[in-house]
C-alpha cells in the first residue's frame, strides 16, 4: 500500500524537483533560466554550498525513486519466473494457496481497478469541469470564496473516513435503490473515488481555465456569442491541455487509492459482471495480503509484481499529465 | 458631408465604481464614415468605444447613465438584445487576438454561433470576409493553418475578417495598429478606407497622422469629456480649442 502511493508521489514530484535541483548548480544545462538570474549575491562559497545542498536533495529523491523501481522490478522478476509474465497479466484466477494448483493471475484485479476508476471518472470529470468552469467564469467573488474552501475541505477528508462513509451511507442507499443484498460494490467505490478526485480535477482545471487570456473571451463576446458559447467553444478548448492534465491527475489519484476501495467495494475475488459486482482492486490486494504472506514465496513476489504493474500505470498517467501541462504552458502566451 | 447619423450618444456618463470615466458625452456618428477618437492616455477613449457594443457590461463596477441609440434604438434599454447588438456592432482590439484555432475556424466562428451550419454557406462567408479584409490572397492556400502562426499584421486583418463575417454595420477599432509595424499599419489603413464604403467605422488612435489620413470626423477626448468634435480637416487645421491644438501638434499627451 505504501509502495504505490510513494511511487506515485515520487513520479509527481520528480520532474520539477529534478530540474530545479540540477539547474541551480549547472545553469549551463538550462540556458533559458540564465537570463532571469542575478539580483541576489551571496558569498560565493556559501552559494556553492547551498547549490550542492539542493542538488543532494534532488539526488535523494531520484535515488528513492530508482530504489523503489529496482526493488519492485527485481521482486517482480522472481514472480514472473514462476508464473510467466503473460499468464500473470491475463489469468483471471488469483488463488495463491490453491489445493491442487495455485493461480497468480491479476487480470480480474486490473479490471477491478480500471472499473472503479472509469466509473469514478464518468461522473467526476463532467462534474469537475463544470465546477471549474463555474468557478472560473460564472461565480461571483463571494460565491467563489465559499465554494473553494469547501472543495479544499473535501480534499482534506482522510480516505478512511470517506470509506467509512461508503459503508454506512452509500452501501445501504445503493442496496435500497437497486435492490441488492448489500451495497459494497464497484459502484460504491466509484462514487467515493470520484469524490476523492474531484478536488484535484477542479483545482487544476480551474487554473487552466483562468489562465486563458481574457482577450479570447472578449473577442468571442464582442462577436455576439453568448457566455455559454464562449465557454464551450473558446475557453475550454483553449484550456484543453490543462483540462486534460486535470483529468489525468484525477485518474492517477483513483488508480492508486487504497483504503476507500478496500472499505467500499467488498473485495470479492470473482470476475466482476457489472458495477453492482463486488470487486477487488490491485491496491486492495496488496494491502490486504502483504501483511500475512510468508516472505520469499511466489505469492509474496506476486504482490510486488502487482505493485510494479500499478506503478507502471500511474507512471504513464502522470507522465501524460506532465506532457499536457507543459503544452498548456506553451499555449498561454498571446 | 453631413450624412444621416447611425449612432447618437446623449448625456452619457460612465462610472467605474466612484470614478467617473466619461462625463456628459454627446456625439453623433455618421453612417459610412470613419470617426477617429483621439486624446491622451486614460481620457476614456476605450471606455467610450466599449459602451457602443456594451462590452463594459463585463465589468461589475460599471454604472452607466444616459442614452446611446444605434439606428434609433437605445441600446441600454431593458429590451435591447445584446447578442443582436454585438452582431451589428463588431470590435477589433488593440492586440491582435485570433482564437487558438485555424484561420478558417476563426472566421467561421461568428457565423457559427449565430446559427449558420451549412458548409457551403460557411465557405462562402469565410472567403468573402477574408477578401474584404485583404487577407485572402495570403492565406487561401492553407486555411487550416493555426491563426497563431500568422504575422501580427495578418492576425489583425484576420480579426477584422472575423468581425466582418457576422455582417456588422458598425466596426469599432481600438488602436488596431498600435502593435504593428509601419507596413502592416499601412495595409490596415488602406483597408479602413475601403471598408468605409460599406461600414461605419469608429477608430481610437494615438497616431495623429493616422487620424488625419483615415478619418472623416474626429473627436478629441480629455479627462472623460469630449472637448471638441468635427470634421477632421477642420479639427486639424483650425481647431476651436487651444488644448485641441496643443494635443494635435504634440505639445502634450
Ligand atoms: N476596469 C476598470 N476599472 C476601473 N477603472 C478603469 C477601468 N478601465 C479603465 N479605467 C479608468 O478609466 C479611465 C479611462 O480609461 P480608458 O481605458 O478608457 O482610457 P483610454 O483613453 O483608452 O487610454 P489609452 O489611450 O491609454 O488606451 C482611466 O483613468 C482608467 O484608469
Ligand atoms: Mg485605450
Give structural notes.
- The complex is a heterodimer of chains A (334) and B (253).
- Chain A has 334 residues and is mostly helical.
- Chain A has helices at 2-23, 31-34, 44-83, 85-90, 107-138, 141-156, 159-178, 186-210, 214-222, 227-238, 240-256, 259-264, 282-289, 298-331; strands at residues 94-95, 103-104.
- Chain A has two domains: 2-83, no CATH class; 103-331, MetI-like (MetI-like fold).
- In chain A, strands 1-2 form a two-stranded antiparallel ribbon.
- In chain A, helix 7 crosses helix 8 (186-210).
- Chain B has one domain (5-248): P-loop containing nucleotide triphosphate hydrolases (Rossmann fold, 3-Layer(aba) Sandwich).
- In chain B, strands 6-7-8-3-9-10 form a six-stranded mixed sheet, with helices on both faces. In chain B, strands 2-1-4-5 form a four-stranded antiparallel sheet, covered by helices on one side.
- The two termini of chain B are 29 Å apart.
- Chain B is an alpha/beta fold.
- In chain B, helix 3 packs parallel to helix 6 and helix 6 (152-164) runs parallel beside helix 7 (182-195).
- The interface between A and B is medium-sized, with 20 and 27 residues.
- The complex binds adenosine-5'-triphosphate (ATP) and magnesium ion.
- Magnesium ion is lined by residues 45-46, 174 of chain B.
